[in-house]
Amino acid sequence: MCEAQRERRGQTATSSASASSSDSGGRRYTAAEELAAQIVDCASLLTCMNAEEAVGSIRPLSPRSRAVTACVSWRTAAPAPGDVRSVDVRFSYAEAFTCLPKSGGDCAYESLMALLVANGCGVAAAA
């Protein structure tokens, strides 16, 4: 969850199985707002990400927006023309960050950063 970035902003997020938003200093954040903030935070460290496109792709998975999805893309370490990779990310306060089945299985991660690195974002290709 890019904890260093969150702490620097002086925010703390609470989550529980039934929460649909975090409460930080009296302000409640929706899952979409939280995912957008996580994408921007991670992009500040993983500069290969296309944060603007990822934030623009955030869509609710349920009518009440308790879970959202986004397509996060990045350039590979040794870019070739059109060498962009991506992963479909699902976020909800109840389940944390997961990869949608079509993009690598239904693995759960505590942080967006861990999910992205596990899927090759910011990792140099093996020689």
TrEMBL record:
| Bias kind Basic and acidic residues: ranges | 1-10
Q: Give the span(s) annotated as Disordered.
A: 1-26
Instruction: Give the Low complexity compositional bias ranges.
Output: 12-24
**In which domain of life is the source organism classified?**
Eukaryota
Name listed for the protein in its UniProt record: Uncharacterized protein
Which organism encodes this protein?
Trypanosoma conorhini
